[in-house]
Amino acid sequence: MTRWAIVADLNRCVGCQTCTAACKHANNTAPDVQWRKVLDFETGEFPDVRRAFVPVGCMHCEEPSCMDVCPSTATFKREDGIVGINYDICLGCAYCAVSCPYQARFRVDEPAAAFGKNLRMRHETKREDPARLSVAQKCTLCVDRIDEGLAAGLTPGVDMAATPACVASCISGALAMGDLDDPESNVSRLLREKRHFRMHEELGNGPGFHYLYDGDIANHEPIEPAPMEAEPVGLAAVSPKLQKNWDWRAAANFTFGGTGTGLFAAAMVAGLFAPVVWLAVFFGLAFTGAGLFCVWLEIGRPWRFLNVFRNPRTSWMSREAIAAIPFFGLGGLSWLLGAPALGWLAAACGLFFLYCQARILRAAKGIPAWRQPGIVPLIVATGLTEGVGLWTVAATLWGAVAGVAPAPLTAAALALAVLIGLRALAWRNYRAALGNTGAPTPVFAILDSPRAALFALPQAGLAALALLAPVVPAGLGAPLLALAGLGAALSGWLFKYTLITKAAYNQGYALERMPARGAGLSAPGIKPGWAKA
Amino acid sequence: MKDHSGSVTESVSSYCFQCVSGPDLMKVDVIDGVPVQIRPNGSAASIHPAHGKVCVKAFGLIQKTNNPHRITTPMIRTNPKKGRDQDPGWREATWDEALDLICGKLREVQAKGLKDESGFARVAASFGGGGTSTQYMGTFPAFLKAWGVVDMSFGSGQGVKCYHSEHLYGEFWHRAFTVSPDTPMVEMVISFGANVEASGGVCGVRRHADARDRGVKKVQVEPHLSVTGGCSSQWVPIRPKTDPAFMFAMVHVLLHEVDRGRLDIPFLKDRSSSPYLVAPNGFYLRDPETRKPLLWDLNRGAAVPYDTPDTDPAIEGEFTVSGIEIGADDMEWSHDGVAVRPAFVHLVEHVKPYSPEWAAEICDVKAEVIRQTALDFLHHAHVGETVDINGHEMPFRPVAISLGKTVSNGWGGYECAWARTLMAVLIGGLEVPGGTLGTTVRLNRPADNRWSSVVPGQDGFMNYPMNRTRKGEWESHPNARHGHQSLIPLAANSPWSQALGPTHLAWMAQAEGFEHMPKPTAPDVWFVYRTNPAISFWDTRAVGEAMAKFPFTVCFAYTLDETNHTADVLLPECTDLEGLQLIRIGGSKYVEQFWEHQGFALRDPAAKPMGDSRDFTWIATQIAKGTGLLGAYNKAISGGAAGVRLFGENFDFSLDPETEHSVEDIWDRSCRAASAELTDGAETEGLDYFREHGFRTKPFPKERWYLYPVMVEQGLRFELPYQERLLRIGQELGARLHEAGITWWDSQLREYEAMPHYQDLPGLWEGAQERQFNVKIEDYPFWLLTARSMQYSWGGNAGLQMIREVASNVAGHGGVVMNPAAARKLGVSEGERVEISSPVGRTEGAVILRNGIRPDVLLMIGQFDHWKTPFAKDLKTPSMNGLMPMSLELTDATGSGSDLVKVAVKKIGGRK
A514 and A488 in one domain? Predict the structure, then answer.
């Protein structure tokens, strides 16, 4: 077997960016898209300061989180360890981009024009590749060079023509590439001889990119995790940044989808005790559909949307899409025919849809605020709470129109209050866990601000409002409950919008050890822009 | 080869020589005639020290070639008024029209005489990139040679932004226009601000990485943690411009705190001036008969001329000796039984006050750090060990000291260059394996061969072509406007010397002139190529105003820029990837470029010229023809002015003098001559061979990296530690200048010491700033420094998007680097825009916080402040050049200044 891997010797690297430029040439990447680049780290305070340069890019992981989440199966891993993308089936959803903890993936929607659209250079038009527009792209490990080189009898990592452009161009000899499964390869030898680490080892991706930080492997000691530095000086470029791949359109899917499926389920449950509020059923479907429409607007290749169903084996996005089919089919029929039994089946599918949404975020390994295990109960609870909340609104309206009470007010109020409580509890657990594991520093300020909207006091107020509904004079109870329900829904929406678009800082970069330089010694590394709270 | 688009590509051989750390070999991939990709040249891996790689700058050449902002047709100015605020009113012209205009002006000059009424050359030329422009200007040097006298004194950074003292003193002491550690063998490097990881080219980077891999100890002494500092084992954040104190203290430790026996005594006795006896007036005591310096022979117990066989020279002690002493202008003293001591003893006494404790306060560095650095230097020197290089047994001294910009130029440059070279001498590490090497000869001849340039001179030292200072020989009417022949003896009088004079004086003189020097004049015709002094020099406002008064400027133009804004004609020449040229590679040249091979490489056009751009060789031929100089031009090419002599012992590819030869014909003949030169005439393949192979080399013996064997063979000594010759020359120069009534160069004369004394350089800078501009220095609390960037330096590539993009990954680009403690005091934060001002100018930029910088220092990488160059003008990147005063007071005796100024910082609001 073969396992291609890259070894970067941090003692040798000078941060010159020749590899960055060579990669841009070899792969014709767009302006400001860098499949390979070299980071500039600094640790310590004057006068005891160190500086290190760290090449990064796609790590061609053993367990690529980008591949598992990909709904279209566009992302694949070859037997030799190279992770690739089939541009022809990628739908450009960017789920892989938010799931990569190494910020290695990009989506480019416009043809390259370094000096502006009206001044495109002849090499930009000559090398234009429409297949790569609006789909995910990343380092391919220059797979064509490898394959063509092997076919020509060359050895990747040894023969320049068969070696990835970054390695072939590296002027300091810091980058080496070779077969980890070959004990005699250059990379195997380097890893035997020198101390090394992998970035974000704790995330379990098994990156195929190893960093040498010191000589003399005999003295190898376990590396302590890089200390978090909440507000690092001069490290903005390597600190976590807000992801830009998923905007309000993706957030809308989580808000409307959660609400819609929750509303549908609430309507069906309430239907056990009273006539089904078909208005709520309709809105449950409509909300969910609106959410999916919004996210459809966001994907790069919208007419390839059917590819979203291709990877139910590992992708929660595929599963979400698949769940949507019976949800809409059965739910629609149920609404059209007024058939609660079909509605029950649809509700189950809707709840699975909601669960899938929670798991989508959980699997987005590149976003620390999403990947917390506690996000699952929180997203589910939020969807249900929003659903029940809006059901109370729909029921009140329906009651006003139809002149009948759709369900016992007390039961509805209790259900809403309990769900608000459960959501608050899920929030508390999520937030506490996030504080324990640590997260990009700005995340805490954002989640702890009013915009996150799930604070105990207001939530308690909403619950109290709901519980008051049964005891206030008749006629006021339903509107009061609807008010509480609306509040519960709005606060849930605000939370999810904030979570998706504001708290979604990526992993950033960390350096487990500052390298030894020449006769110098290695030193503790840094995880900049991270804190526990 | 197939591109992913399916198009067939071809791969064209070329080279990158954009900086003084080249040349490097590369391949250019071309699709359907469009250059699309740069790749290293793997086939050069076995002959190139960096395995056939090119650095990041080379990758900018694709955008450079295809840049939509290029000027692609000749342009003629229609607005006679010049200046930043004037629209030149460019109109497109044909080549015939443009060349007729230029040749007409040149013929006017020919009719008037090549020199003007002040004795200055009427034609001036400015080329950038530390001489690398030559590697792109085809046969234009042959035209200049055919033309005759040309003034190259309008600098574009030379002297103020180079390693100026190192160039002059290095070449003087050990044929070292550029100095390098013997990086492939070195064990310890102490670097005072040398930013080799950013500016040492691919050979430097590769070799230093190899050195780190084998555990080299590298101490980086500099006020900010540069890329090189980051790659070092230790960073010592020294106070700016106090490096001489640190180095003097190291010398003190070596001479006063360790056993003498740990120094290389045989080297000091036989390869240095240490044993020469110094007479009472500071000049050597000489044998009255031979007039040779005397030394005390311990074998004979008597003073004998330095070259007496079988001596054991004393370097310590005091002896009573008779002899003569020769001072300035042949003044002679006769001494009878006078007590004299060897130069070495004078050195020991000279450095006695300079202890680490003394230096600590000056440098803001702990004494024990300085002491330990010196002791480590000695420890790693391996004094007494030898190594065999191709059958030559030589001392093995794997320690070296490197000097960076601002350390090795301007005041203090002499002290640093002297101390560095002296320390190499003390441990016998000068020009030996592992030690301190020169890599380039520029001022001596032959320039392409360091060994051959070692010619015996007077007193047992190497010859040096000083500008003459003796009465009756001194040049009172220099032909270059900065007056290097009159002011700078060490600048010598060779083709390169003009570029090494005080180039800022040429610009300063345009404004007001200098008393008792010839009246300043503007050149009748000024050629400009690959340089932008309106950005890259100091006091850029004044430089811009001066060039706006030049009557006729011809710019070989790539895009519009700040300098060609004042031009009269713009000529679009083929850029790097479009022109045809053959250059020499290998041997020992430039920064860290000492190879084990030498030969030639071809720059084969990878693309047809964009628009109506023309090959530089074609342009040169047309100008030669249009000025009636075709015969002389062709002869100059045949004689080697374009890089290779076209005839030899058993080959002759000379051009017919009276024929207009095509570009391909000229370079085909050059290729044939190159093949013949490399094979002693056995093979004569031409352009086709080089097009197929890209380069051709033969082995360059490694022992030729070191001067030591040839010094031993010729019985020569390095002229250290004592500078008797400079002492004499300084006195003579002073006399000549005073005879001419010139007193404004008096402070420069104080540099001519036999051994430099420490001077308070920070105080000198602060005082000069106060006096020149009548300001309080307290109002300017920060030292502003600059640093080189691999991405930008020398490339003229600030207008390239890709370069900006990748440079942005390296901290410090695009703003002003500041220590967070200093920023807190000012109340500014990361990304906030500030104004940085000196008494001569202001610039704006975003704050970049880094811990790796002294709190009293600001850093601006590179040179920006463009206002015309497309793309670059929108970068909003600060630049120190407009803040740097041109100051005579801050000009040292070699005519150089340092990138150093005190500045104030003010919040202006807004963010980057």
Answer: no
